[in-house]
Design a protein that fits this description.
Elements: H1 9-16, H2 22-31, H3 37-45, E1 60-64, H4 72-82, E2 85-89, H5 102-117
Parallel strand pairs: 1-2
């Protein structure tokens, strides 16, 4: 149950953020921290049983079409198993929330939340707009 160190720089580059520009890769690499050993073991060595009934909340799965860690077929299997909505970003790898595509991904998630949960989620300014 000891903390699990981040993957090596070469493995990180190959599987996590290969599609990011060099400046983003450097920033990501310097920010990586050890992860829970238990969590890493569960995610990499355990079969996760998914619910067999629809969950009582909307679900969105986002994936990169060039993800080397989670292949497209695995993302599709998860989408179908959970009956989730799915956005895929064809030219992106695993690390979707940094780099050039981050603003697009966040805007898409925001629109999905507003469509599914209502306009009350919109950020209002001090005037109430």
């Amino acid at each position: 149950n000891r903390p699990h160190p981040p993957p090596s720089r070469s493995l990180s580059l190959r599987y996590l953020y290969h599609s990011q520009p060099e400046a983003v890769r450097t920033r990501i690499w310097s920010s990586l921290k050890p992860e829970s050993g238990l969590l890493v073991r569960q995610l990499t060595r355990t079969k996760i049983d998914l619910p067999q009934v629809p969950l009582p909340c909307p679900l969105l799965i986002i994936s990169g079409g060039d993800d080397r860690l989670v292949p497209a077929h695995a993302a599709q299997d998860l989408v179908h198993s959970l009956r989730a909505d799915h956005y895929t970003y064809k030219t992106e790898g695993h690390w979707l929330l940094n780099g050039p595509a981050a603003k697009i991904v966040v805007a898409d998630i925001h629109r999905w939340l507003i469509r599914g949960l209502g306009e009350s989620l919109l950020i209002q300014d001090d005037e109430g707009y």
